[in-house]
Amino acid sequence: MTTSPTDTLPPIDTALVRRLVDQQFPEWSELPLTLVDPAGSDHVIHRLGGELSVRLPRHSGAVGQAEKEYAWLPTLAPHLPLAVPVPVAVGDPGFGYPWPWAVSRWLDGEAATVEALAHSPRAAKDLAGFLTALHRAPRTGSAEGAADGLATWSLAERDTATRAAVEETGGVFDARAMTDLWDAALDAPGWDGPPLWFHGDFHTGNLLTVDGRLSAVIDFGELGIGDPACDLMIAFTLMSAHTRSVFRTALGVDDATWLRGRAWAMATGLNAYTTYAAVNPRVAAQTTRQITQALAG
């Protein structure tokens, strides 16, 4: 759910990562570094030896994830049925690189794909089980509020940007249908339960599989507390109509929450589409599916 970067990206290459690791964590200076390519749009990732990964933010919108995951994932992990990153250290800026960066345990797996999992009821149930566990995980200490960089998303905060994106993409998608969905979601009853944990960027690219089965959830940069509807975007990025029904039943989602989830999927899909589609065919295809599936319901 990170907004697109407008800042100048710092140059990040293996030589820079090697210098940062060697200076700040000399105990790992003998471990080989291997660039992971392709990586996501938010981080440059290297594998460090066989057991560790190094992640450097590409832009200012991804800054803060290292500290957030280090603070909260050890608390959440015991409550979750799928693996999540295990933070090991947070590195400091250096050698012209301006932001904190992360060292975590390496997680084996391949990125989840629509082709592999869209029609899998087992995957739909596994995802519902993960979200149920995450949303209901206990909140302690500063997580009782919005401290320590935890997100507190709301649809209303995205109103201006989403309407602008609808207008911009009106020649590609059905502008009337998008406006109707957005208006209906804003008019729907809001979340009236206690604020719950949410992942905040729960899409296909942040899921790993091993032997065709979901194994891990990664990239908790948008971790927050509040309305869990934003995590329903996975139903529209990954699933078919049938497996969405399986997912919704397993999760026990009411009509208003489902409607808000559709709107989240559309809004975040539009954000990524308007930012990356012109230069990245893969993102164009993924976000086109996300938007059209959200409109279909």
Description:
This protein has helices spanning 14-24, 65-76, 114-117, 121-135, 159-168, 175-187, 234-237, 241-251, 255-276, 281-296, and strands at residues 33-36, 43-48, 52-57, 87-91, 101-105, 110-111, 196-198, 207-210, 213-217, 224-226. It has 297 residues and is an alpha+beta fold. β2 and β3 form a beta hairpin. Residues 1-6 and 142-146 have low confidence and may be disordered.
Q: How much helicity do the residues have?
A: 25-40%
Taking the sheet with the most strands, its summary is: 5 strands, antiparallel
CATH superfamily of the largest domain: Aminoglycoside phosphotransferase (APH), C-terminal lobe
Radius of gyration (CA) equals 19 Å
SSE blueprint and pairings:
Elements (H helix, E strand, L loop, with lengths): L13 H11 L8 E4 L6 E6 L3 E6 L7 H12 L10 E5 L9 E5 L4 E2 L2 H4 L3 H15 L23 H10 L6 H13 L8 E3 L8 E4 L2 E5 L6 E3 L7 H4 L3 H11 L3 H22 L4 H16 L1
Antiparallel strand pairs: 1-2, 2-3, 3-5, 4-5, 6-8, 7-10, 8-9
Helix pairs in contact: 4-8, 5-6, 5-9, 6-9, 9-10
Which short descriptors sum up this protein?
single chain, 297 residues, alpha+beta, Phosphorylase Kinase, domain 1, Aminoglycoside 3'-phosphotransferase, Chain: A, domain 2, 5-stranded antiparallel sheet, 3-stranded antiparallel sheet, 10 helices, 14% strand, disordered N terminus
